[in-house]
């Protein structure tokens, strides 16, 4: 699904967080969003998801304006938000329970468990899973919504370095088959370089997008990523506002 954001603005009291923000995302594109703390990255996702209402501007999906929440967006926050008293299967099927289609969703979830690295975990509880597996469960819950656009807000931010690296590899491989449009907010420059087709570097609150950077390498490996020192330095300067 193609996403267009046109002159979007949102303020907290008198502080402009997002102001006249415009960008477009092609169908199936993976967009990484970087920027300094407080620049409006998470606010942007909350506005797109319909959690926050913009003061002005438009959000369009395939040319149709979206107002408020839309089933075309699936939002995944940093914390997995799994209910500790529910099994993993019940957690990932929460959308179906809310919308009275749980039986069909349970069948689909069972067929996807192995693909998401959760085979045999259906009857387990969140406390029995590692942090990475919990995030896989949260991602499966997001994917089962069948939305065309995924909004991922620091999904691996709470994980240790090794687990985070493994999850990035897993997500990159998974996304080749998901065929979804994805917006990923992250503070990790390497994560954005490794996963994204294009990176949007945001400036100070209300400033908007400082630069768009296309990542054209298709055969990405960890070795390739380690060699991207010049690109990493360029992005760090953009985030800090250094010319």
Structure description:
This protein has 243 residues and is α/β, with parallel strands linked by helices. It has a domain of 130 residues: P-loop containing nucleotide triphosphate hydrolases (Rossmann fold). It has nine helices and ten strands. The strands form two sheets. It has a six-stranded mixed beta sheet, with helices on both faces. A four-stranded antiparallel beta sheet has the order 2-1-4-5, with helices on one face.
CATH top-level class of the domain at 1-72 and 186-243: Alpha Beta
Which spans of ≥5 residues are poorly predicted at pLDDT below 50? Answer: none
CATH topology of the domain at 1-72 and 186-243: Rossmann fold
Residues in β-strands, percent: 15-25%
Assembly type? single chain
What would the keywords be for this entry?
243 residues, 24% strand, 4-stranded antiparallel beta sheet, alpha/beta, Rossmann fold, 10 strands
What would you say about this model in short?
Helices cover 35% and strands 24% of the residues. The chain is an alpha/beta fold. Strands 6-7-8-3-9-10 form a six-stranded mixed beta sheet, sandwiched between helices. The chain has a four-stranded antiparallel beta sheet with strand order 2-1-4-5, with helices on one face.
């Amino acid at each position: 699904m193609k996403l267009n954001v046109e002159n979007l603005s949102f303020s907290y009291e008198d502080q402009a967080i997002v102001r006249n923000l415009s960008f477009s995302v092609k169908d199936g594109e993976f967009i990484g969003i970087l920027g300094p703390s407080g620049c409006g990255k998470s606010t942007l996702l909350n506005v797109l998801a319909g959690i926050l209402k913009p003061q002005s501007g438009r959000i369009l999906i395939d040319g149709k304006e979206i107002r408020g929440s839309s089933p075309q967006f699936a939002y995944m926050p940093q914390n997995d938000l799994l209910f500790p008293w529910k099994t993993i299967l019940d957690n990932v099927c929460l959308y179906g329970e809310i919308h009275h289609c749980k039986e069909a969703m349970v069948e689909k979830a069972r067929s996807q468990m192995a693909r998401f690295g959760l085979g045999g975990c259906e009857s387990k509880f969140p406390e029995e899973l590692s942090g990475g597996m919990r995030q896989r469960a949260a991602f499966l819950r997001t994917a089962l919504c069948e939305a065309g656009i995924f909004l991922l807000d620091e999904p691996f931010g709470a994980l240790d370095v090794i687990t985070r690296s493994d999850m990035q590899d897993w997500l990159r491989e998974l996304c080749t088959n998901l065929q979804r449009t994805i917006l990923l907010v992250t503070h990790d420059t390497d994560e954005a370089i490794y996963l994204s087709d294009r990176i949007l570097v945001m400036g100070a609150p209300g400033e908007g997008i400082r630069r768009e950077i296309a990542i054209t390498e298709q055969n990405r490996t960890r070795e390739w990523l380690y060699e991207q020192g010049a690109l990493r330095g360029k992005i760090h300067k953009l985030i800090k506002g250094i010319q």
